């Protein structure tokens, strides 16, 4: 028996086979391209790091009392806070290119019906994540910061540390970005057979409670911000069920046609 018989291979769509080592080389190449994409975006934005942070701080600055300002309690904060924000923004901007590299790696091993589902989901997940960030910045932040500044005790000067503010808004960005991925998660769960649209409809009361619990854990301890996360989650849950029902119906129709043949 030749040693080549032990080589792990994976059939490809063009009739050829690729070894495990070739897959690892391809994975390394895709990872390097994704990292280079992020670095390219970062180098383009690094000069504007201070301006980007200033734009991010606008929702808070606009609600702070007249004469108040943000502060830096650490010597290195004025440099590292905008630097850290620019890195995160670079990853966000390069996300479509990163997902393209992931898609290019996994697509050859997918069946045709899998490609028809995964490609729209990757595009949709990117748009939903961006939508969650935009919703947090333009809708949630003004309301939340106005609430916090209005309830400050008399005699307390509001002067938020720039690093604390950055950590706070990034946490909300990821929370809302992840929450807006609910339709994608539902479609994948139904597609893999873990659950079904009808089963999810029956569990709707538990989902409502769970959405508000998640809103309580991921947002500041006030009912306004909790509701502003929970309500979009419930709307996206219903949208996910509707889309999953369409895919589920197509699969049932295809199964019926195969049974007839």
Describe it:
The protein is mostly helical and 261 residues long. It has a domain at 15-180. Helices cover 74% and strands 2% of the residues. A two-stranded antiparallel ribbon has the order 1-2. A hairpin with a 5-residue loop joins strand 1 (9-11) and strand 2 (17-19). Helix 7 packs parallel to helix 10 (223-260). It is flat, with a radius of gyration of 24 Å. 20% of the residues are buried. The model is unreliable at 1-15 (pLDDT under 50).
List the helices and strands and how they pair.
Elements: E1 9-11, E2 17-19, H1 20-45, H2 49-56, H3 58-61, H4 77-106, H5 112-150, H6 162-179, H7 182-191, H8 197-202, H9 204-218, H10 223-260
Antiparallel strand pairs: 1-2
Structure summarized in a few sentences:
The chain has ten helices and two strands, in the order E-E-H-H-H-H-H-H-H-H-H-H.
In DSSP terms (H or I, runs of 4 or more residues), the helix count works out at 10
Outline type:
flat
Integer-rounded radius of gyration: 24 Å
Low-confidence stretches: 1-15
Number of strands: 2
Average pLDDT metric = 82
Lateral arrangement of strands in the main beta sheet: 1-2
H/E order of the elements?
A: EEHHHHHHHHHH
**Beta-strand residue percentage:** under 5%
Helix content: over 70%
Class computed from helices, strands and strand pairing: mainly alpha
Q: What kind of sheet is the major sheet?
A: 2 strands, antiparallel
